[in-house]
Design goal:
By secondary structure, the protein is an alpha+beta fold. About 30% of the residues lie in helices and about 40% in strands. The protein has one domain: Ribosomal Protein S5, domain 2, CATH 3.30.230.100. The protein has a six-stranded mixed sheet.
Length: about 100
């Protein structure tokens, strides 16, 4: 498991190997949830599911894209991060923490 940040800005990313494919689970903030799902296959357009009112797929797409490029296999990224009444600065901090984990894939 990879983590980044502290307190309510802490995020985590867990990887599971499923045969040759990989599943990434993203969570953190005050409440982990499922806000989106992204499926990436080599040389195909990513498929994105955004649950209503959530924007987690934006970060999940970066995670899945990076892993798909690196491992040349099917990648599924799922999860979500929630901070109640988050301000723009708080969202920016969470996104920064998520991006720092992507470099560890």
């Amino acid at each position: 498991m990879i983590t980044s940040g502290e307190g309510k800005y802490r995020v985590w990313l867990e990887e599971k190997k499923i045969g040759d494919d990989r599943l990434y689970i993203l969570g953190g903030g005050e409440k982990t949830h499922i806000g989106g799902i992204v499926i990436c296959e080599p040389k195909k357009t990513p498929r994105v599911i955004r649950l209503e009112g959530h924007y987690d797929d934006i970060v999940l797409k970066s995670i899945a894209g990076k892993a798909c490029e690196k491992y040349c296999t099917t990648i599924v990224a799922i999860g979500g991060i929630h901070i109640e009444n988050a301000k723009k600065e708080e969202i920016d901090k969470i996104v920064k923490n998520c991006r720092s984990m992507i470099s560890c894939i």
